[in-house]
Amino acid sequence: MNLIFAAILLYFVSIFQISFLAHFPIWGFTPDLVLFIILIWNLLESRKKNTGLAVAIIGGLFLDIFSKGLMGFQIIIALILAIFIKWILKKNVRIRET
Q: Which residue, of 32, 51, 52, 70, has the fewest CB within 10 Å?
């Protein structure tokens, strides 16, 4: 259920980002809302789950489909971001089990 919700959310956010936000840059840059959602999803997810990696693949796929760049580039960037966040959380965050 979470993956379906994430796919629908990322679909609409990527369309909004590519079609609308591209015309209104902030200080010369277009905000990347899909990468922001991937970042927040991986930060708030449990360390034992790997749904964040699937969310990164889905978000990168939608960005690749709707953009005119190289196919697969956004998937790689999103996966690197998700893996890096998982690695940082696993190395540096301790959760006390009661």
A: 70
Tokens of 7: 């796919």
At residue 20, the 3 state secondary structure works out as: coil
DSSP state of 21: G
Q: What does the pLDDT look like over 33-64, one tens digit per residue? A: 889 999 999 988 877 788 889 999 999 999 89
Phi and psi (nearest 5°) for 58?
-65, -45
Distance CA 33, CA 88 (A): 21
Please state, as a whole number, how many other Cβ atoms lie within 10 Å of the Cβ of residue 86.
Answer: 19
- Closest-CA residue to 56 (of 29, 86, 91, 31): 86
pTM: 0.83
